[in-house]
Design goal:
With 200 residues, this protein is of the alpha/beta class. It has one domain (8-199): Phosphoglycerate mutase-like (Rossmann fold), CATH 3.40.50. 40% of the residues lie in helices and 12% in strands. It contains seven helices and six strands; from the N terminus they run βααβαβαααβαββ. Strands 3-2-4-1-5-6 form a six-stranded mixed beta sheet, sandwiched between helices. α2 (34-54) crosses α3 (69-81), α4 (108-114) packs across α5 (116-124) and α6 crosses α7 (161-172).
């Protein structure tokens, strides 16, 4: 896909207890924990410094987030750390995390017992496999593509690990089999600017 387009700053929500436990969250509405709040505050300070280095102000960007509470609280902490109105952003339902369907709430270790056949299929093809009543990363990529192609303004977005993985995949032309295993930190900000990616 690789296109310069608008500047995109994409931030994963702060850590939740389910992240720490290795549970599949998907679209379950799990709040961030104390560590997640510290990560969000760190990202707010880093974002403020980065915008200042570009000579840009916050109001020159579209601010949007997943409607799930872990993304919204992260966004509000980020904005508060920048001395901005915490609520001056736009939730977008397109940005919900990948849906793990019937697997949500379980760890992968537990899935070996609950659904060993599905667990083995996913291990063979993380890109194309969809849990029962859930999405594959391939399906998520198709869901997010219209959002990404529709960006018209420089954008600051708080979303999820899966959203960041497929967005990176499209922008950086990453092969499908590599996208689901990409590490997405919760204390860094992904920046796509002038056709190049960096982390701050």
């Amino acid at each position: 896909m690789k296109t310069p387009g608008p500047i995109l700053l994409l931030i994963r929500h702060g850590e939740t207890d389910w992240n720490a436990e290795g549970r599949l969250q998907g679209q379950r509405d799990i709040p961030i924990n104390a560590k997640g709040r510290r990560q969000a505050a760190r990202n707010g300070r880093a974002l403020g410094d980065y915008l200042a280095s570009l000579g840009r102000s916050a109001d020159q960007f579209d601010w949007t987030a997943s409607p799930l509470s872990r993304a919204r609280e992260t966004m509000e902490i980020i904005r508060a750390a920048m001395d901005l109105d915490p609520n001056a952003y736009r939730p977008d339902p397109q940005l919900k995390e990948i849906c793990f369907g019937d697997w949500e709430g379980s760890t992968m270790q537990e899935m070996r017992e609950i659904d060993p056949v599905g667990r083995a299929e996913r291990k063979k093809d993380k890109w194309g496999f969809a849990p029962p009543n859930g999405e594959s990363y391939e399906m998520l990529s198709a869901r997010i593509r219209p959002w990404l192609l529709g960006l018209e303004r420089d954008t600051i977005c708080v979303a999820h690990g899966g959203i960041t993985r497929v967005t990176r995949g499209m922008l950086e032309d990453i092969p499908g089999h590599e996208i689901p295993i990409a590490m997405i930190p919760q204390d860094r900000i992904y920046v796509w600017r002038e056709g190049r990616a960096e982390w701050i």
